[in-house]
C-alpha cells in the first residue's frame, strides 16, 4: 500500500476512536513511518524482527511539571510495514491502527489496562 493510502486508513482509524479518548490527540502529533529503526528496537529490548506497531514519544501527562514544558512535541509514531504484515484485510488494518493509537494515547494519559478494557480496547 502506498503511503497516501495508508495515511487515509490512519485517519479513518482515528475517526473511529471515541471522542472521550480522541480529544487528547489535539496536542499530539501523529507520525506515520515505514518501520521502526533498529536502534529504537534495541533501546526497547526488542529483536530486529519483532513487531512494533506504534510508540508514544514525549512526556506523559502524569510526569509533567508546569514549570518545565516539554522540549519536543508529544508524538505517536505508527509503523506501516509491521501493521500491514500482521493484518489480513483492510478492515483488520483499520482496527489494528485504531487499537495501536488508543494504546499510545493511554501511555500519554497514564491509563491502565482496566481503563482500556472498559473502553473495549483491552
Automatic annotation (TrEMBL):
Source organism, top-level taxon: Bacteria
Keywords, alphabetical: Hydrolase, Protease
Molecular function GO labels: peptidase activity
Keyword Nucleus: no
InterPro entries assigned: Zincin_1 (IPR010428), Zincin_1_sf (IPR038555)
Gene Ontology process terms (BP): proteolysis
Record Pfam families: Zincin_1 (PF06262)
Protein name: Putative Zn-dependent protease with MMP-like domain
Source organism (scientific name): Desulfoprunum benzoelyticum
Amino acid at each position: 500500500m502506498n503511503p497516501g493510502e495508508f495515511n487515509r486508513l490512519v485517519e479513518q482509524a482515528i475517526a473511529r476512536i471515541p471522542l472521550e479518548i480522541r480529544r487528547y490527540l489535539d496536542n499530539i502529533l501523529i507520525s506515520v513511518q515505514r518501520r521502526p529503526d533498529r536502534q529504537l528496537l534495541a533501546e526497547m529490548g526488542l529483536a530486529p524482527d519483532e513487531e512494533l506497531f506504534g510508540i508514544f514519544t514525549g512526556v506523559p501527562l502524569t510526569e509533567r511539571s508546569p514549570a518545565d514544558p516539554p522540549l519536543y512535541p508529544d508524538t505517536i509514531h505508527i509503523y506501516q510495514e509491521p501493521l500491514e504484515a500482521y493484518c489480513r484485510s483492510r478492515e483488520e488494518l483499520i482496527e489494528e491502527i485504531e487499537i495501536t493509537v488508543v494504546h499510545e494515547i493511554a501511555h500519554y494519559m497514564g491509563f491502565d489496562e482496566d481503563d482500556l478494557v472498559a473502553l473495549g480496547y483491552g
